[in-house]
Amino acid sequence: MHRMKIGLVAAAVLLALTVCEYVLVTDPLKDSATRDVEDQVGRAQRLHSELARLEALDFTNLVATLGRRAGLPAVFDRADETARRQAAFEECESINAKLAVQRKADIVLIADAQGKVIARDLNVNAMFGEDIRSQFPAVDVALKGVAAGGVASLSNRMVEIAAAPLSKGDGKLLGVLMVGYAVTARDAQSRRDQLGADIGYFFQGQVQTSSFVEGHGTEAKEDGNKTHALNAALFPAQGSKPGVEALEKGLPTGSFRVSLDGQDFLAVAAPLHAQERHAGFVVLQSLFRAEATASETGTRILTFGLLAILVALSAAVMTASRFIKPLDQIELGVAEIINGNIDYTFKPVGPDFEGLSNSLNVMLARLLGREEPNEDAVDEEENEGQRWQSDQMVVDEIPTSALNTQMSADPAVMALGSENEGAYYPRLFSEYLTALKAAGRPTKGLSVQMFTAKLRLIEGGLKQKWKCKQVRFRVSQKGDEVTLRPVPVF
After folding, report:
1. Do residues 439 and 481 touch, judged by C-beta distance below 8 A?
2. Contact 192, 211 (CB under 8 A)
3. What is the pLDDT of residues 39-87, one digit of tens each?
4. Which residues, in sequence order, are CB contacts of 84 under 8 Å at separation 6+?
5. Which residue in 468, 467, 471, 489 sits closest to 410, CA to CA?
């Protein structure tokens, strides 16, 4: 069942009630509503300009702070070019990992004093040696010793960037650190929630993204039709072009009407930053909604609106209580199992899904070869100290740097890699079980199916991490500690 079905029905009811009252709006009140919307759009434009200025300043200061990291000057101390590129790549990755706490950057790069790329994140070879001063003007400014920000194009996407000079303690300029974030529909939607007005961003004569969405909840995505229509309104083939006017004058335009998918909006376009002549934004407010709320029969609108809201809230609460919350709990349980917790047991989550929870428990028990749960005892906690738990399977840590692709030539490794899975898993399980017993570790409930299932999950993660053909294991025992030592086969 579609999760938002009840919400969509409630929204349809609200729309019908609103339209019924809309017909009662008179021309004078519509004019008043239009003036109110014009004021709202003007305030939204001014607020956005101020927020953009402050955020650009904060972003530039952040990159300038990152540029003072102790490891960055050391990059330029490497005499060997390969070592210098690798060190720069590692610094870019480290910086982006730090930024990812808030939001991962779309590009982090280090350039030399001539504006040529040493390395960027993601791929040590990408953009190497490119002179990026013309593509990213902020880099050219930073090479003069001043941190700067701006807007540029990266892979045909509008990107906000900031660049900061890198220097030694004596002030000698070494190069530039640059960080960039692509402007996305999610950014536009977040700004819409702040301003209370829809917004679109344009760059180099093309609308890049907007806050308009189609669909609801997790299914929502940018409404491409409205974004395309907005582009046609800002940069028409003939007549006045508000987007060009705003950028050429470096000032906000007056308010103008835009029709998007049959809805009328009032809009104001402006440069994204005071000195920016290539990027801008447009804020829009729906005249339809404003004029509807200006109905002469305000009491009736309030009555119908409250009724529709109550219907929507009741439907949402009923759906969440009856269906969505239990389903979310079951999904969380499935995620636990996917992430390797094969000991997980589904608890009853409501009368509608009690049978499903029990069926999932029985299915897991049969797949993993463990005892089927008693339906009346699902909530009872077992004595975990006497039973084997999947988190007891400890795998020795092997750093990626310690891997040697020549290991696959070792006869013992070759024999282990060529061993048939039908014999390998039972043999390894037998050795593991024997080691657990010898170490006095609990083995109750451990089966070859559970052992194999857990081991395959670990194998998959290590294969992806090490980029090897397969991963096999050997049982290792030190005192009462029993571990599995991975053996990569390249």
Report:
1. yes
2. yes
3. 999 999 999 999 999 999 999 999 999 999 988 999 999 889 999 999 9
4. 75, 76, 78, 118
5. 489
